[in-house]
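Quick question about two entries, pasted in order.
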Amino acid sequence: MSQSPLPLPQHLPKPRGFGKTNRTDSWWLQPIVVFLGLSTFIVYSTWAAFQGVDYYFDGGGASYLSPFYSPVIFGSEGHAWFGTKPEMWPTWLPFSPALLILWAPGGFRFTCYYYRGAYYKAFWADPSNCSVGEPRSCYRGEQKLPLVLQNIHRYFMYIAVIFIGILAYDAWLSMWFTDADDVKHFGVGIGTIVLTINVILLGGYTFGCHALRHIVGGRFKEISKHKAHKKAYECVTCLNKRHMLFAWTSLIWVGFTDLYVRLCCTGVWTDWRIF
């Protein structure tokens, strides 16, 4: 026996006012935590980027380079790729090697699918959370400037993969210590562990990227027929399931890694050599 279809409402429900909702849970807690977490990182990373000093620690024969400054394209350190500060650098702008490279990882995170959803809610209340009224009465999406630029996330991802290789090399260098005779020996210090965990977490975040997942397997109608692509797709998917976890742990740890190197450089913290 067929049932008659339910009658459709004649009028759509009116949009809720800003912050109005029928939710009874603590929906406001998540955007507040995200706002405080991202704001703290932005303030610290901006301050650290403009310092231009205390980013490379070589005490006790160690070789620890802050991820905020790697790679050092121009700088005062001996391992800068192209020497000291370029002559064309504006005199009114403080020089720091970090300012030359942080646009890449910063752009990768800023255009990240997860972070976009997170900071849209936390900073713009667009909306504050699911089923919560927002300030605007219409949805415009990301079709106009400046939000249309979010679509270049894939290209930032290509650069981010290169940065993972560079940071992995920095972690490898941190495993070699120079003695008094200028001979390098394999060893592990606390800084070695800090830098290695940093590249692992950043790798988990980068290789779990939604854009990378689409590139690996999105263009196949039947990916099961392509074993290598299917295996790569499954690996990326496994990381993608924990994308939010890697997004936050890698963000916190990369900031801590810079802080650790900075504290060692200033003598506030002593790097302990394990072996």
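Here is the second entry:
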Amino acid sequence: MDANSKQPIIDELRVTYGDILPEHEYLIDHDWEWFRRRHKINAYVFSQKTSLSRKMKALLTAVATAARMPGSEGGRYVRMHVRHALELGATPQEILEAFECITFPVGGIAFMVGVKCLRDILEEEPHLKANEASESSSAEVRKAPLTRKALEEKQLKVHGYVLPEHEFIMDNDWDWTLLMHDFYDYTNTREGGLPNKMRSLVVVVALCARIPGIEGERYIRNHMGLALRAGAKPDEILEALECAYFPCGGPTLLVGVKCLRAVVQEGEAGRGT
């Protein structure tokens, strides 16, 4: 294969991610036809002719990577996708809020890996701070004490369900429940860089990446329902899942699609269509 025919893709990778990984170079040198076909899929996922913006797709890919590979090795790839999101116009605040959203479904390690990547990139490439937005309001609003009944009613209104696990925690550690509710409520409902729809999509992708088994499907479907109620369309959820394909593999995508089909079918049945 003529090296010149490879150069446009190599140049595109350098522009997109800031550099080309040694893994990319090895694949290009040893199995160009496979890599070329893989790149065509990636280019389609990030094309403009879709419902989600390119910056949000890059952000979702970073989140999926952090959820699936939260260690130092995974951090190399998370960093690559965070930089891509910044180059496409995502603000540091949007990226920070996206990683904050995955604290609940996949834990603090994935969150910290994402924050470290964002901080390191901004320190090394300060020009990427140019699209920094104003910080979200952090003023604390005093609220009346929350009762068990009020919390359950709010859970039903916002999420459409109260899981048995939620009830067990409420019964056995109410103080912890109140602390976590306040933390969750602030993370997911404050006015900030990300709209509620995108926060829901971030959580969906993180859940698919981290717990793609039968038990995880229950939570994935619940959060897909939240995304739909927040204004997401089924094709936007599908595109979000497609972003997770390369960092997380086919099973992650297929489990997500399985849940999406079930949620859409349940919605159609509920409308009598």
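Reply: The radius of gyration is 20 Å. The longest helix spans residues 250-270. Hope that helps.
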